[in-house]
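Pasting as-is:
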Amino acid sequence: MFWQSVLGQTVLGIIVNIITVVLFALTTVALTARRWRRAQRHFFGLSERGASEIHIRVSNLWINQGGTTGNLPLRRGFVGSAITEGEFRLALQLSTALQTRSVARILGAVASQLGAESATNPITADVAACPPPMQRATAVETAEAPGCLILIGGPLYNSLTHVVMGTDGNRSTLVWMERGNPQDAGRQFGIYVPASRPGGDDADIFFPRRREVGESVLHDAYFVVEKLAGWGPNRATTFVCAGTGNAATAAAVHELAQWRRLRAEFGDGPFAVVFKLVTTTPNQYDSHGRVTREWHKCGATPLLPSLMKFVITCLTSYRADGW
């Protein structure tokens, strides 16, 4: 028979080697994907077998009577709730980046049909508008709900950000946003952080500004990416992505989409980072804009840097004392 010949044995050996390599590659990919999913769950405060929903909430703009223009003459303009296209697109992009891919969902469904418990427990990320400004009680109830909540937009139009940042006097976050003069509605918002110097002012403030460099006009905008772990009575995990302009808010969302980089630095605990965005288009995000870090603070020391610091300390002690 062919398979008992020298050529057949050679072909059979090649086939077995190919199958072995493919199975090894698939196993490696599966284990790596499982490790990534576990890291993602820890970072976003999701349980291994429990709820796996991430709730993304954008600003809710309440339009007053006469505030819109139509294609035909209007006796009365649109009145009611509206969202911005920019924030909605950002939320959809972030949702796509965070939720489990379709292939993993299919594999989990097939495993369930075969009687095995799904090993994927897919992560989903829904997008919706926050409660309107006049529904304070609903906003508080939504913000305090268990699970993972991602807020896009500052406290001026996002009622949930307003609740979480505590702009009514109860500051529960490391960073907050206020007008330069709360009594002056015309003043722009700035990002406030605790004083970085002992004995300094109550807060350091980052205000956006416009400046001319030669014949070019540059805009300095600021944005914050903050994580609150164990926030509220239900110990929810909440993220805030807010900027001093449209481009800055978009940059904040793009920064959170790179969550692995943030987790490598800050671990799974709370943190807050303020970035500066230098751009020529303050109302539209440009990936070529220059982003620099201005301030950061974390609530817990990441595990890996702590281990590295411990090892370095031990090696230094050994070289000094010879133990």
